[in-house]
Amino acid sequence: CVYMGAGRGRYKENTCATAEAGGPWDYIFREPRPGLTDNPQWYVDSNALLESSQSYEITATANGTQTFSATGLTKFNITCKTAKLASEARIVGSVAPAAGTSKEKIEYGECALEGKLECEINGKTGVSKEAKITTANLAGKLAYSSAASAEKEEVEESSVSTSDLLLKPAEGSTFATIKFGKGGCPLETTFNIEGEVLSKELGEPGIMATTHEVELLKEGTYWEDNSEKKAVSHTVGKLKGLFESIGLTGKLVLEVKGGEPWFITN
Question: Per-residue pLDDT tens for 101-120?
Fold first, then answer.
């Protein structure tokens, strides 16, 4: 159901009758929702994206500090105050039963090494507020965040979100590259950060809104509904780099460029 007056909505138990009152509700879909995928999919402005040719450009802003945290012999924390997506980042539809996908590159800005602001990160110090870390081209994929939601093929059954977005390099294994220079950095070296990152949609599911927030997790587990209608789990560990485990955390607010309301469905 969609609250048409505000461009927001709530879908509950397959009917509008159990949705919250307060405005002119209308149907978007009802069971059996023919044509929608078995895995999570993007839904923009009352349209399910069910073909790879269907896509929307998206933008992102940071909600709070973004952190690259290394543990082990070479411990360090790099904090970045800003984050955005490079131009032409897109959410992309997929043919059933595949999940919705995305294409993005994250640009972290105003980065600094905690406790050593003179450390040069990719040629700029933390004092300059110009140090940046840019990821490789990433390929995202929607997934379920619990076995129960995967088995039910339902992202909107609970009071909290049950959908994830997996971010991995579009090619190879390098997620980002960092160059430590002078100024008290742990080492003067260039190293790749390799692996993939799991992010979780925050907030209550089934809400049609112009912005949605995701949180990048150090590590986690996601689930997919396979061809045999069974929930299959996948574990995502921390990133690796400089012989260390590196956790990337932070919250990003995503928006479809143009301001169309959107959400994640199945």
Answer: 999 999 999 999 999 999 99
